[in-house]
Amino acid sequence: MNLEQLENAKITRPLAGHSLRFDGKGWANDPHPGVIYVGTLANLNSLYPAGTKGRLAEVTDNIRGIWKDTGTAWVSVTGYADVRDFAAGGTGTFAAQWTGWESAVAALPDYTHVHFPQGDYTQTIAIAMKTGWTISGDGYRSSFVWSNHTGHGFTSLNTVNSQTPVHRTIRDIYIQNNNASNVSAAFVDVGGSFLILERVYIRGFKYNILLDQSSHVRILSNVLEVPLTANIWIVNGADFSPTAAEGYTNVITIQNNQFNNTASVGTQILDDGGGNHVLINNNFNAGANGVRASGVIGLTMIGNEFEGHTATPILLTHTKNSGTYIGPTTAFTIASNTLTDLGLSHLIELAGASNGSIEQNFF
What we know:
Layout: H1 3-8, E1 19-22, E2 27-30, E3 38-39, H2 41-47, E4 56-59, E5 65-69, E6 74-76, E7 81-82, H3 102-106, E8 113-116, E9 119-123, E10 127-128, E11 134-137, E12 143-147, E13 154-157, E14 164-177, E15 185-190, E16 192-203, E17 207-212, E18 215-220, E19 223-225, E20 230-235, E21 250-255, E22 258-260, E23 267-271, E24 274-280, E25 283-285, E26 291-294, E27 296-302, E28 305-307, E29 314-317, E30 329-330, E31 333-335, E32 338-339, E33 348-350, E34 353-354, E35 357-359
């Protein structure tokens, strides 16, 4: 049996107590094991060390399912951990969501690809992402995570006052919080670097994304809407982590995103400082402020659209959202943006800003 035969074979469900045997034409029920081993990955490597290419085994922990011997290592056939394999109940419909998967998924090792196939998933506790994790779905119109608690959705928590290269990614998934008392974030990072959020739809958390001492972050092509306070909070100092120093939240790129809010509630991006924050080609729709920035060294805003705000769409000031003085935003560029908010006395307010440029914007 080769991989092409495995992929093209017609799979049938085995009888109770039986496994499947490939007979050269298709899969058939076989009272004898169709794989050489069923059990944990550690025992597989101990009892059957890799070295005989083509052997198959069924792993019951780690990335569950069929693994193959490549001749040099045992590897998962799918390459990802299917969250459905860890669920205690449900069928994946909105009415019968997959449940009870959180603790088992959280126990997966570093560098795991955690995949949420098409369907609906109930989340009751925060998931702490490990180093190198990728969390993905089949698209934010197909894979839905419904968070019903007051805590975070997915966390990336590291040592404060340092920057740890964690290489964590979330992409192609929908995450919504339905608890009006939520006090947390869909994704929160403290002290991590090399982070990507791409093609994610996030709705309803107090902060949809929270970055505290984060660096080398890319937030690309997402839909972020209806937060209780802010769609993105960029933290600078001890406002979230009590012992965090200022000046660590650096090299942040926010590009091609849609920000939606309701009436005068919340701010789209609440930026309390750091270095080299770039906002390119985003749409900011409704809410109070579009961008409120203070204490940023090197803020670049190019090609964005602002509409429907009830307060100043772009506010550069010298105090953080907490009211603490942080200093002006310096070395800033506001260029080629479109601001179509009507009935406001100010579209750009420089309450705390220096050494910057404002050019070629449409008002």
